[in-house]
Amino acid sequence: MEGVDIACVLGVALNGGVSYELPDSRWVFKAFGQDMDERSTDDHAEVRFVTIGCDSDQSCRCTADEIKKGLQQGTVFLNEASTFWPQIAELCAEITFSLNLPSGCNAYATAPGRACSNPVHTDHHDVVILQTQGSKRWKIFWPPAHKRGRDPFSRGKGGDLLDATELHLALDVVLDAGEVLYIPAGFPHLTSTSNRHTFKTTVHLTLHWSAHAWFLDFLNLRSALLIQAGESEALDESSVPYDVLWGTPGLFNILWHTCSFPRSWTDLWPELILRLERAESGRWDIRHLRCTADVLLRLFHGYRQQLVHLSLQIFHRQISGFGNAAGAADIGVQVAEIASEMHELKEAVLAFVNMTDDKRAIKRFLPELEGRSSSNSRERASGVA
């Protein structure tokens, strides 16, 4: 808890809380840090949020003692752990650089004897679990068959309970200190500390990165291409073969797994067409789509590089600002501003894809094409350009 003590002294807001299960099988999250609004719901499968450690100015003043008390209730979690430990910020920076994707890290602590320390759910991010103390049992399941209207990367959340009949076990393992586990996005998982190996508080780090949240997967690229080309992007994923979504090559695959971008952005084109044909064979006019793809793929490349650049800036600020009491608040503001700019980039990509504000995206990602107007984009979409 040393890093947490220091962060509190420096005035860095804690982003996290305590999660535990109620007798009626609902889960409660007592949140502290950035999310200070109390929210509740009558939905049986939803979670309730109750703030702790807050004062009148809505700034977190949660102490390490309060966090330790939280262990008596359930799992204590700290989001954005790179804020508290510069070593974690350095690790996140390495992951971001290596994978060419924004990344982050959360820390979790659970007392021994918890039959279920987190309910079964899926996430939109890939994760690597680093067990640092004690041991924890992990059950990982294959992605369930897609259900219409359900987000495959948010199952088990927001009222969308995962039924036992949907779960097919892929791995059942106990992690001890020093061991590592990789869980791809969309794979349901749950944890417990009620195994015979656990005699003390178990602590692990969750390193995560999400291509899906930033539109950097083939499913999102498919939608963007079809919208720009004037085609319908509608796809009933429940009717698409399981392997076409989750296999390789599949629509849920991440774009460009490494920082070594292909020799040309055009190298991605055959990979995209392969997945389009697997999902809906014989539908496509390849020459028509290719006219649109040239600019779109270049734009996505520029967008990704700027996301990574800004993500690395966040970790640099966290590393350089740690331990500097006078500048801690300024560092927090700078990090928030950078994070906001990353989301503005995401909005710019959406505006371009939907052809509501082409100029903003072109200016940010492809300045050499800035002279083109929105009408040119629509000409590309109709195959005229």
Give your account of this protein's structure.
This protein is α+β, with helices and mostly antiparallel strands. It is built from 10 helices and 12 strands. The chain has an 8-stranded mixed β-sheet, with helices on one face. The protein has a 4-stranded antiparallel β-sheet with strand order 6-11-8-9, with no helix packed on it. The longest helix has 36 residues.
Provide keyphrases for this structure:
alpha+beta; Jelly Rolls; disordered C terminus
SS-based class: alpha+beta
For CATH, the homologous superfamily of the largest domain is named as Cupin
Cα separation of the termini:
60 Å
Helix content: 25-40%
- Please give the number of β-strands: 12
Spatial strand arrangement across the major sheet: 3-2-1-4-5-12-7-10
Mean pLDDT: 78
CATH fold descriptor of the largest domain: Jelly Rolls
Radius of gyration: 22 Å
The level-1 CATH class of the largest domain:
Mainly Beta
> Oligomerization state of this entry?
single chain
| Tally of domains | 2
Can you summarize the main beta sheet? 8 strands, mixed
